[in-house]
Amino acid sequence: MTLARNIFLLLHVIGFIGIIGALLSQIPKNPKRILGGAMHSALLSLISGFALIGIRSSLHASDPANWDAPDHTKVGIKLIFLIVILVLGYKNVKKPFVSTKIWATMVGLALVNLVIAMTL
User: Fold this and answer.
1) Helices (H), strands (E): how many in the chain?
2) Of 19, 65, 88, 104, which one is least surrounded by beta carbons within 10 A?
């Protein structure tokens, strides 16, 4: 079970790096675009995040001394931010350009998501 957790954790991190990388690649460009890779990466993070919660819950149920229960508040906040990123992205991915406000909001939410993951 820990092997599955590690694989999904790696996929989750790869997905997050893909979101940040695709969004930050637009820094020098004007007008900015939302790349499809950012959306695919966001979906990868979403799916692997759900898998991580399920695995963590199962590990906690089988061995609560070694595995803490998932922090559902933290997961809920991260999920809301990721859903907002997905909604903004999919509404604007086919447009030839997006406003800097939308792009910056997506970058900001992704970075706050990273801070929440690392601190809470």
Assistant:
1) 4, 0
2) 65
Expressed in percent and rounded to 5, the helix, strand and coil fractions of the chain are 75, 0, 20
Tokens of 38: 């950012």
Asked if residues 115 and 74 have their Cβ atoms less than 8 Å apart, the reply is no
Contact criterion met (CB below 8 Å) for 100 and 56: no
Domain count, the chain: 1
* Residue whose tokens read 């954790």: 9
Domain containing residue 55? 2-119
Q: What is the pTM of this model?
A: 0.91
Centre a 10 Å sphere on the Cβ of residue 39 and count the other Cβ atoms it contains: 19
Each residue of 53-91: pLDDT tens digit?
Answer: 999 999 999 999 999 999 999 999 999 999 999 999 999
